[in-house]
Structure formats: C-alpha cells, structure tokens
Amino acid sequence: MADSPRSEQQNPTPVTKRGGGDPASRGRTTIADGVVEKIAGMAARDVMGVHAMGSGLSRTLGAVRDRVPGGGTKSGVTRGVKAEVGELQTALDLEIVVDYGVSISEVAGAVRENVIASVERMTGLEVVEVNIAVSDVKLPEEEEEEPESRLQ
Fold first, then answer.
1. For residue 52, what are the contacts with CB-CB under 8 A and spacing of at least 6?
2. Residue 63 and residue 55: Cα distance in Å, rounded?
3. Average pLDDT over residues 25-47
4. pTM (predicted TM-score)
C-alpha cells in the first residue's frame, strides 16, 4: 500500500520559484526631473511665508504663456524649481518670493525640510542639496502683477 494515492499527496513536488529574489527588485525605475520638480514645488508652496515661486519676470512670462494654448513647457507648479535627478540622488534649486515680515532664514529652513521630506518619501531618492534663492519680498500694499494679455 505504499504506492497508494494518499502517500503521493503527502509528498508534493516542490515548487520552483522563477527569477528568485524580491519581485520589487526585478527591473529599473526611473524618475523624470519634472516629477521631482512638481513634488518639490508643491512642498515649497505648503510652507507659510512662501508667497510665490520664481522671479517676478518668470511669473509674468509664465502667466502669459499659460494663457496661450501650447504656450509653455513648465506648469505653475514647477515654476521656480529646477531638479537634477540621478539614479539614487537628486539636487534641487528653488527660487521663492516670501511675504513681508517673515524670517527669511526660518522660511528657507522650513522649505528645505518640507521639500527634502516630500521628495525622499515619494521618490526614494536621496536629496543631497536644496539651494534656495529668495528673489523678492511681497509687500502688503503690492497688488498682484497680472500681465496684460496681448490677445483679444
């Protein structure tokens, strides 16, 4: 009775895994510069004291470009953000406008912390540096500069 069907069921054939290792490590993931720029831009805008991103000129040109169909390559989210992305690391340059009366060093530190945390959490990349250039201060009495459209 050693050859009964019951004894064959007790000794199943071992299953061979193909490929071996962790499935998450099979293949390569690349992250575009623009993806990191969007994440960084959103994270920077979340910080109190950041009025806008980019210089006055880039915001003006961007507003005009955004109105023209097919006009611009950078969205409002990525304006004022430049990323260099490698396989494991990224470096960022941000240009911000701060509200009048805030501590620029505190706002810059908070922006740096929020950007690093967001980018590293979402991408898994190590952020090696976040350079911040403060290009302007928004005064309370200043109106938002809305460029006049040349189109009618």
1. 59, 80, 96, 97, 138
2. 12
3. 95
4. 0.71
